[in-house]
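Handout, page 2. Input:
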Amino acid sequence: MMRFGLLGPPVLFHDVQGGARPEARAVASPKSRALLAALLLDAGRVVSVEALKDVLWSEAPPVSAQASLHNHIARLRRSLDDPRRLRTVPSGYVLRLDEGELDVHVFDGHVAAARAAHADRAWERVVHECAAALALWRGAPLAGLPPEVGGYAFAQRLCEARLLLMEWRYDAELALGGPRLQELVPELAALTGAYPLREVYYRQLMLALHRTGRPAEALAVHRDLRARLVGQLGIEPGAGVREAHLEVLRGAQGDAGAGERPGDRDGLPTGPAGDASTGPADDASTCAVRGVPVGPVGGAPTRPVGGASTRPVGGASTRSAGGVPTGPAGGVPTDPADSVHVRPADVIPARSAGGVPTGPAGGVPTDPAGGVPTDPADSVHVRPADVIPARSGSRPSHSQASVPMPMPAPAQLPPPPPRFIGRNAVRDSLHRVLTAPAPHPVAVISGMAGVGKSALALYVGHQLAERFPDGQLHLDLHGATPGMAPLTPGQALTALLRDLGVEPCRIPEQPDAAAALLRSLLAPARTLLVLDDAANAAQVRPLLPGGAGCAVIVTSRSPLTTLDGAARFPLAPLSDEESAELLRSASGREGLDGTDAARLLVELTGRLPLALRVVAARLAARRALTPEKLAGQLAAAEGRLRHLEYDDLSVGRSLAVAYDALAGSERAADRDAARTLRAVGALDLPTYSAPLLARLTGIGEPRTEAALDRLLDVALLEETTYGRYAPHGLVRDFARERAAEHGAVRTAGAVDLADTALHWYAAVAERILGAIVEPGLDQEDRLRPTASQPAGHAAHVATVTPFAGPDEAFAWGDGELENVVALVERFADTPSERRAGLVCALVRLISPYAHRRGRLAEMEVLGQAGLRVARRLGDTAAEAYALVDLGGLHFLTGRHSEALALNDRALTLWRRLDHTSWIRRCLNNQGLLLDGLGRRTEAGEALTRSLEYARRLNDPYGEAITHSTSATSSSPPTHGPPSSSTGVRSPSGTRSAP
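Output:
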């Protein structure tokens, strides 16, 4: 029997005669591995041919993809024990698997058995099942395969199952005990390092250390974990860790020596007689289990007047005057993490008559023990800074020990940028919006990476700080921070509530409840919130206050258009003058103003503030680095982003965050967006449209439009006009690098993309010709292929929908002609004859549009390139077309002598080819041009010969045009190309636009 392996790189397991363990044989070819993995991921189901092509060749399948796929399938079949396992069906292929033949299925069976055994606390069975499952693990599932294979969620599920197996096995081994406990410590220590936020491994490490006689190290593990969770996420350890911590503390109490009080170990709270408090009824102990820290000396929670109590560590409670208990050091927490519990009634005035009970100070209900709140969880957080510290060397008074001072208003805004330049109009608009009488105004500042969103938000926030006396909150949502996942709404709410003074153990676990609490706290306040680097509207929406006195500034690469009621401020790069001023002031280089080097640096940085700051920092750091030298480094197209990195500033890393999130997403639209951006980088054009990118990526127009929406949303593309897209210059460099890394611009890949674009443009140009040139000889002659036109052009034309009329065709040309000219210029001198033939065909078919639209500059480029390519290929007809079109250009610009010379050369070629209709056109053009030069006799002779050819062709329309030209030949034309309403043709041989 053969088995298959996906728990690691894909392998085939073959049975070995006389051996109990099958032999694993790696699949040598990378494409064969990818093919096998794609079939195994959908074993028993049809995998389409198109899906397999996408897996093997990504966006650029070769022309021979179908045949190559058949070869790969045949090779894979030969490696199987039974070739009939892999069947061909009409739409694709199906790989048959029997039960137990895929290691993932066996693994899943052991996981289910281990889960059941763990629930039943059958520890020996847990160890057995976990060991059997983990023995199948050879590495990360699908390791070494390209992202096109997919299976990201599949691999994540298996990796998570492996971690659960290890958790269950360690739970079982801790329960069973024995000498194996000593071996658990290094294994668990390694796991806590690998998974620093996975609390269960910390819990197990604490218990393993404690049960092997190392309680101090166990307590140190807890301390480090708690510091990490509180510092990074603003949350306390979970219930499992708290229970383990309590077990260690109880064990530490039992081991205490005669001269050591149990409460002195790791801040263990003690009761009135000095014994460790462990019962849930004890207020301090309850908070310890919840993760509320208590300091080792004088760090017990201190409560304010009104029934508050303070428990000294390691000793009996002492009461000051008035019956308020105090600690040995005055009850003031010494650790910044220590907290003071105060009931809402302690900080909010109690109701008057209404039946609400009050405590001794008229505020808090107390129990019979002397002012301790009956519910320890009924409290809000008061920071240690709110309590008056005890004077050194003296016993604190009642007021010093327990009366909280007013909590300072948060002032969290980072310092404003020292050099803020420009954006005057946007700043004024932000001021108006944020100070308007409308309730809770929200301003969204959006734009691409490095455009200065955060700097503007902080600058405006500091200017408006005095208008918000209840504080200014700042929270980085890490929507696009390299190496960090965006904060979830729950994490963001926890951070804001903690900053407003809410005790972590009092923060609701449900985000909806936490959002309601945040709105309640901010309702009576006048507070400014700056939410920096938001990923999306869903991340921001729960954080918005409901009070009329608050205002919110949000920065995001996305405009967050689904955030109702927000005013939006999209940022563009700075102006040239502002960029030069920022460069000079940030670099400290005098004499930069107005220099060519400064202008070039501004241009090469795309006027992007982040890029300008990097350039300025490099100039400031290296005085020997001249602006001219740095400009030369940046001008090298292949290395511009590499030179735009300094210290922690990096344009490339900032752009990579959005791209990497798209490329690694499970959403097809996001992956399509990453693919589309690579296509943009692989085929560098001035602008892009959805139909063009759909051709380049092969994903169809609907998916391409969705991908473009995502790229707009993360500011990797800009919509210059409706339906036209272009990246910022630095994003273009980034896209080019990503395309190169992904292989989209390997030699073969570049050929495919360039040919795809040329084929498509030539096909659409033919459809334009059919829409704007009337049926007849004019249209037929232009459509007739020349010798260099590659085969298959007609098939490409068939895939393009005809235009509804001339207006639609002209509109398409207006949008795409710039790209056509760029492609023709780029590939006119290509050594590939096939591609050169495509250039010739494209020039021939698009020139009538350019002529009728009067696009003179583009006609010059197209005509010269077409002439050069045609001569190199030896395509006489294509050369004659180019000469005729250049003659038409010279006629339109009044250069009649040059036009006549070009027309005569074309006439010679058409006579050589014996192309009667074009001979007639050239003779007609010759007569018109000679007449314009005052050579009346020669003009008449040329028109007479043209008339003879028209009659020979039985072309009454051409005959009428010649007669019309003869009738008007007494004076040269003075108004450009003659109107088709007169029947007169311009020298290009095509009627001009009406």
